[in-house]
Amino acid sequence: MEHSYDFDLAVIGSGPGGQKAAIMAAKLGHKVCVIDSQRMVGGVCVNTGTIPSKTLREAVLYLTGMQLRDIYGASYRVKDEITISDLLSRLQHVVGRETEVIRAQLIRNHIELLPGMASFLDPHTLAVESDSTFEHRTLTAEKVVIATGTTPARPKHIKFDGVRILDSDQILALDKVPDSMVVVGAGVIGVEYASIFAALGTRVTLVEKRPQMLDFCDPEIVESLKFHLRDHAMSFRFGEEVASVESSGRGTITTLGSGKKIAAEVVMYSAGRQGNTAQLNLDLAGLTADARGRLVVDSNYRTAMEHIYAVGDVIGFPALAATSMDQGRLAASHAFGEPANELHGLQPIGIYTIPEISYCGKTEAELTGESVPFEVGISRYRELARGQIIGDSYGMLKLIVHSENRSILGVHVFGTNATELVHIGQAIMGCGGTVDYLVDTVLNYPTLSEAYKVAALDVANKLRAVARFTNEMIISEPSTL
């Protein structure tokens, strides 16, 4: 039975995943609409998440002069008294420009942007409640992509007030840089904000119920970050749960399950994210979300309903803007029968702490558990001319290489431009290159990219030593003939 729909594809949410799904479908010649609140064009990524936090980070790095203190002295600062308005002026400019860019991209691709909140009436029909008026619109779509993102998870026993006790979306609403702060949750968002405020001079205490932070990263890299953060007077409380938080006009008291009490000006909760699906009426579409509001999808990002897809943070890990973008492209391609590939094992992870962490591929622990023979090469920024020039004495790059076929199995970077540098290793891995490419190639001098050459030579020397010793053992063995 043939159906006539208003749109070939309706995308709910205009974040990175929704944008790319819509644009991909439009490029394939389909009629597309994107539904999102007028106040949230660009999604959480542009308005409260990725772009604001990374812009804030850049403002902090510049205004504190932190990266140049090894050169000009520990007291070096671009500005002595840094205010919230100093930080937010740059943020507002960037967010405004990003929103304009997204609107222009949608218009250029003839994608209709519908302001409002969407909910299902049936698997192919959506109701759109307008932001600015009391108007309601109903539309039908052959295919649907859900890209609604997430909101901060809020424990019921914590009384958020948006002033002293905040979630990670509210932290940008502070009226001053706090002297002290408790950050609850040592995931990516919590550690990023903790490091940013520590760089501003805030005394930060990071509380995490797990025994370690960023446990999916290389332990050596995480230890380097912890050492650096301790140097900025940050305290860690691992294996601790928060029992209660009390606030007053003067500050807060955080009581831990062990009985410890921490006094601080503000508390920021970053205890996970909740899928933003409560308002969608998923049951009318034949779908259900898990306890955290997330949707389950198959390898093509299709939900239990074959014409409805879901991408981005709403489907869970890795919940990064970069991976969400690719998921949107892949979902739209699959929906309309366009061949598309995904490099599952080579998705880079970037964590914008101060300093940055980024990696691609396997960790030492994963390879050891899989009984894969490997060797490790290390390069430290302090040994590079570029590292001295920019004042980064702590950065490092680690290469993990297969001991037998010399393929690169993992790249782990800590320090300035880590999230940029990782892509060199990612490209070589994706093309099936070996460590010998890095040994033989010429890299610009002086650059941080030289770290690859230094680490590759370190690996090659170790592998050569093992091969030489093995050959000597074979020669020295008595003949069995």
Automatic annotation (TrEMBL):
Residues 348-455 form the Pyridine nucleotide-disulphide oxidoreductase dimerisation domain. This is NAD(P)(+) transhydrogenase (Si-specific). Signal peptide: none annotated. Conversion of NADPH, generated by peripheral catabolic pathways, to NADH, which can enter the respiratory chain for energy generation. Its cofactor is FAD. Keywords: Cytoplasm, FAD, Flavoprotein, NAD, NADP, Oxidoreductase. Its EC number is 1.6.1.1. One of its GO terms (molecular function) is NAD(P)+ transhydrogenase (Si-specific) activity. It comes from the Bacteria. Belongs to the class-I pyridine nucleotide-disulfide oxidoreductase family. Residues 7-328 form the FAD/NAD(P)-binding domain. It is found in: Cytoplasm. Pfam families: Pyr_redox_2, Pyr_redox_dim. The lineage of its organism: Bacteria, Bacillati, Actinomycetota, Actinomycetes, Propionibacteriales.
